[in-house]
């Protein structure tokens, strides 16, 4: 289904603050060594959207990007 939120993280920006893991532990984790974010679920279920949106808001490095696929036009293939 091409709808819902798509989650992308930018590990290069991540400062390992762990705010995303607190907000949505089912979607984000951190690498043990350096605390850099690890994306567990790039297409989380709707029940996780509140936590995912909160994570993107509170991330101090703006390393979490959300795309609402529902808002995009259908049939993007050329
Ligand atoms: S909140 Fe942002 S900076 Fe902190 S661990 Fe998550 S992605 Fe990295």
Question: Could you explain the architecture of this structure?
Answer:
Helix content is 19%, strand content 21%. It is of the alpha+beta class and 78 residues long. The radius of gyration is 13 Å and the shape is elongated. A two-stranded antiparallel sheet has the order 1-4. The chain has a two-stranded antiparallel ribbon with strand order 2-3. The structure holds iron/sulfur cluster (SF4).
The outline comes out as elongated
Mean pLDDT: 92
Helix % is: 10-25%
Q: Give unreliable regions as ranges.
A: none
Please state the CA-atom Rg, rounded to the nearest Å. Answer: 13 Å
Strand percentage lies at 15-25%
Q: What is the strand tally?
A: 4
Give the H and E element order.
EHEEHE
Number of helices: 2
Task: Report, as a whole number of angstroms, the end-to-end distance.
Answer: 19 Å
List ligands, each type once: iron/sulfur cluster
């Amino acid at each position: 289904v091409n709808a819902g939120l798509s989650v992308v993280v930018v590990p290069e920006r991540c400062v390992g603050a762990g705010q995303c893991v607190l907000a949505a532990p089912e979607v984000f984790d951190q690498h043990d060594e350096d605390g850099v974010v690890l994306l567990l679920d790039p297409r989380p279920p709707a029940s996780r959207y509140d936590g995912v949106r909160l994570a993107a808001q509170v991330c101090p490095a703006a390393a979490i990007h959300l795309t609402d696929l529902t808002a995009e036009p259908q049939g993007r293939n050329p």
